[in-house]
Amino acid sequence: MRVEVAKSVGTTTESLRRWYDAAKQAGTLPAPSKRSGVAALSSRAAMAKVKAIASTSAPAPAVAATSSAPRDPGAGLGEHETKAILDYKRKHPSMGPAQIRAQLKRFLGWRVSVRAIARVLRQAGFPAVHRKGRPVGDEHPGRWEAPHRNAVWQLDWKDLRIGAELRWLLVIEDDFSRFIVGHVLAEGPTSEAVVAALREAIRLHGKPERVYTDRGAAFTAWRDVTTCEVFLDAELIDHSLRGAGRPQGGGKIESVIDTVQRELWELIHFDTVEDAERGLAKFFADYNHRRAHMGIGSLVPADRFYGRWPEVQAEMDAVSRRRQGALALHADRRLYVDPPAAGERVVALQLVVVGDEAELWLGGRRVRLGRVEP
Q1: Is 343 exposed, middle or buried (CB count within 10 Å of its CB: 0-12, 13-18, 19+)?
Q2: pLDDT-derived band at 164, boundaries 50, 70, 90
Q3: In the structure, how many helices (H) and strands (E) does the chain have?
Q4: Residues of the domain holding 274
Q5: 87 and 69, same structural domain?
């Protein structure tokens, strides 16, 4: 019935609900009609009266007739949602609407449409973010993914300028989880640097079954055997090479390197190599534990790498289902699982009421206390 009433007066069901609540609170809700048993609220005259009441309590700016925005701004996002979107955009200027949507879903349990986020960014004056498309080739259009963690590690180099010096960044990514298992900032793209980075990554995260690289001189050689190949043979690790002259197949690792370029190197100037190494260490820690990834269902790489994504996904779904009726909607209920970064302020203990159920949140974990008696 609500859908038919909203359609008859030319508004949305959300606006109808807000107007109805405002009239009910003011005590001016029209009486039910004896003839049809349907509230007289469905008439245009009664709806105009309710609109006038609602507008006196919360005046809304006028929207031009030619605008593509909703007829009533109240039908859009709340102030807390708009603030969260803009906060993420200011913290990550290169993020587009889809990436911001992934952060809201993972850390707040919100499901906000990409179009709504794009509208908020456009109204706030942020320019649109454009990304280059995938390379076109003759391979299968589906994206391949490793079946489990440590099945495949991808490696790639990137040259970076630090002051007047040139350094080379090697990144090692787990294909299944997108977790960065290792990196090194070296003076050049050498096999020795690759072996050192692999040794440290294996010490911390275990041995991969296979590594996947391009045909760079640090990984393979035409006439000779590189130090990297000798190490891989000794460790019984398979080595797969990307096809010569084919950009396909390395999209995941190249995406990480592009993210480093956009979100770190183009925003922060490092005067020394030591500062750059500290900045990279913090960046990859945030990337692994505090940055949702669209390619893995808005999870963070650590959720997949450490095998906890079923629990996190269930929690996101539960928060999303309770969102509309949550009394603690404006509270900071971030779904953190990992320890916070150094100096980061977090809520350690929080009592939350959701509907008529009480919950206790301790260090990011939820304990259901039971029903709250009136």
Answers
A1: exposed
A2: confident
A3: 12, 8
A4: 152-296
A5: no
